[in-house]
Design brief:
Layout lengths: L8 E9 L4 E3 H5 L6 H8 L3 E3 L8 H16 L8 E5 L10 H9 L5 E5 L5 H15 L4 E8 L10 H4 L5 E9 L5 E7 L7 E2 L12 H6 L3 E2 L1 H22 L9 E4 L4 H10 L11 H4 L6 H11 L9 E8 L3 E8 L1
Parallel strand pairs: 4-5, 4-6, 11-12
Antiparallel strand pairs: 1-7, 2-3, 6-7, 8-13, 9-10, 12-13
Helix pairs in contact: 3-4, 8-9
This protein binds coenzyme A.
Coenzyme A (COA) binds next to helix 2, helix 6 and helix 8.
């Protein structure tokens, strides 16, 4: 039943899934010319999870994370009115991943669609779901971020293969009239060339070496770095100004886990202590749209979030270029 006053949704359940296989920096150093010290110093990453080709797909990881989130929420899945899955690396183009998740969790009353917004995919899906809740169209939503990014990593390119990992995370949102919520999403498609991956399936395209390389993640790391350290603090500051709050009022800033130095730079720009910026990048690498819900799940399990009394800002950025920030309570 829809609430009498349509409202934004409180996170009432979180779940995540990480593949078992761990690839350390030392493992990577056996494949490309790199070393643990360089990777740790430049990125903060020590290890990442790599999907098992025998059992892990974006679909299977999304389903596992979603099942865990629904269980954590303790709801009847028939209450879910909307399933949104963010993935930039779906193993099937259709049926869409959200339909597979809907089937697996028995969310038989839900509408479904997928969102492809690269690394900020989860935030984009979260904001989209919030607007469905606020409109009164649905009362409960399941939002998932799932990525099998290492399928698109060129393990001969040391500037990208060190960064990425696989996994999935999910949240259940339930309309709550008392919830504080606001968000700003931005895009700059004119600056998108610095982070690109082309589809293999393009008729008329000869499978030349250059074309095959374009089917992997291609990145100008320094340009992406500068974009992130400039735009992320700006969008957070704009959001805080709009909600008449200051950075000091926020308990935690949950940032996309792409690079420790990016997060440290944002903390410095916002004049906030780094312990207000929880991180798990050391163990996960950049899991794209899965990074934020995986981190939220860890923080809930540690008892840091999930009691409903913490003010947080979530912010992500990535290919597009796309970025944005959400302010809410959890
Ligand atoms: C990729 C990134 C770690 C590279 O760090 P950087 O400090 O910018 O390094 P540079 O690209 O300037 O490279 C510096 C040197 O290190 C070398 N290098 C690159 N990768 C290396 C590696 N894995 N190991 C050792 N050396 C490496 C480069 O070849 C270069 O050598 P040169 O000076 O002899 O040419 C950094 O730019 C970054 O994290 N950018 C953001 C990427 C990101 O987050 N993308 C996803 C967004 S969602």
């Amino acid at each position: 039943m829809n609430p009498s006053v349509p409202s934004y949704g409180r996170v009432i359940g979180i779940g995540s899934y990480l593949p078992e296989h761990i690839m350390t920096n030392d493992d990577l150093a056996k494949i490309v010319e790199t070393n643990d010290e360089w990777i740790t110093e430049r990125t903060g990453i020590k290890e990442r999870r790599i999907s098992d080709p025998e059992k892990d797909t974006s679909e299977s990881m999304a389903i596992e994370a979603a099942k865990r989130a629904v269980k954590d929420a303790g709801i009847d899945p028939k209450e879910i009115g909307l399933v949104v899955v963010a993935s930039t690396t779906p193993n099937v183009l259709f049926p869409v991943l959200s339909a597979s998740v809907q089937a697996a969790v028995d969310a038989d009353n839900a509408m479904c669609f997928d969102v492809n917004a690269a690394c900020p995919g989860f935030v984009t899906a979260f904001v989209t779901a919030q607007n469905y809740l606020k409109s009164g169209a649905v009362d409960t939503a399941l939002v998932v971020g799932a990525e099998n990014l290492t399928n698109y990593v060129n393990f001969e390119d040391r500037s990208t293969c060190i960064l990425f990992g696989d996994g999935a995370g999910a949240c259940v949102l339930k309309a709550d009239p008392k919830l504080q919520y606001d968000a700003i999403m931005r895009a700059a498609g004119k600056r998108g060339e610095c982070l690109r991956c082309e589809s293999y399936m393009q008729k008329g395209r000869e499978k030349t070496d250059d074309f095959l390389k374009s089917n992997y993640i291609n990145m100008d790391g320094q340009t992406v770095f500068k974009f992130a350290v400039t735009e992320v603090p700006k969008v957070i500051e704009d959001l805080l100004a709009r909600t008449c709050t200051t950075a000091d009022d926020i308990d935690y800033f949950i940032l996309h886990q792409a690079n420790r130095r990016i997060i440290e730079s944002v903390a410095k720009r916002l004049k906030q202590p780094i312990d207000k910026f929880p991180m798990n990048i050391e163990k996960t690498g950049n899991t794209s749209s899965a990074s934020i819900p995986i981190l939220l799940d860890e923080l809930k399990k540690e008892g840091i979030l999930g009691q409903g009394n913490k003010k947080i800002v979530i912010s992500s950025f990535g290919a597009g270029l796309l970025w944005g920030a959400v302010q809410t309570e959890i």
